[in-house]
Write a structure and sequence with these properties.
6 helices, 12 strands, globular
Length: 218
């Protein structure tokens, strides 16, 4: 009996300690995007994308034909290697996928994206620079990465001033207030408001003065 218990214990320990395949986790750590304006170029929007885990990168790499199909088992288990991110990152297919699944537009005009070569795709993600036809005050950013592989995937997004949203299938676009164009419109609106208020106040004072003059004359 003691030998049986020892054998079972050793077996369980081996299962815990030894590395094994991981399953794709649309319900695990989510992928993330960060949206930011360019301080020197108001027509440029930066989007940084990062996968939730290496198994997600493997699934994407297999779907793009960048990794062998036998890395994903029939039961959904995924075998990943440390070199997978390095194999996926510089690929033109990967860049084309990101540009297809992540879109940016400003004032209804589409922006042109350029994918920067990632230094460490697994740890830092990848940055895409979008150049728009004109300075962008509010950018409409669409994120559809990985939902083509599994609709359960979601993306946690962060923008300027700590604004946050969650991208998911059926809610894959969001408007982000980025910079001077948007704030300028707000300032113009406030300025017009105060100007109108000043005119109305002045008109009221004039009316009171006229009434007092007429009252004194009578």
């Amino acid at each position: 009996m003691k030998r049986l218990v020892a054998a079972v214990t050793a077996g369980l320990a081996a299962l815990v300690i030894s590395p094994g395949p991981a399953s794709a986790h649309p319900f695990g750590d989510p992928q993330t995007v960060t949206i930011a304006a360019d301080g020197a170029r108001p027509e440029v929007v930066h989007v940084r994308w990062k996968a939730g885990g290496l198994d997600d990168l493997v699934l994407l790499g297999v779907s793009l034909g960048l990794l062998p199909k036998d890395r994903v088992m029939l039961d959904g288990a995924v075998f990943y290697r440390d070199a997978d991110a390095a194999a996926i990152g510089p690929s033109p297919r990967f860049a084309a996928y990101l540009l297809r699944q992540i879109t940016v537009s400003g004032a209804g005009e589409s922006c042109t994206g350029a994918v920067e070569a990632p230094a460490d795709l697994a740890k830092s993600g990848v940055t895409i620079d979008y150049t728009c036809p004109a300075p962008v005050g509010t950018a409409t950013v669409g994120v559809r990465t990985l939902t083509d592989l599994n609709p359960a995937y979601q993306t946690m997004a962060t923008g300027p001033a700590g604004e946050r949203t969650v991208y998911r299938q059926g809610a894959d676009t969001h408007d982000w207030a980025l910079g001077p164009s948007s704030s300028a419109g707000q300032h113009l609106g406030l300025s017009a408001f105060w100007q109108i208020g000043a005119v109305l106040l002045l008109a009221g004072v004039v009316v009171l003065v006229i009434r007092r003059i007429r009252g004194g004359a009578s």
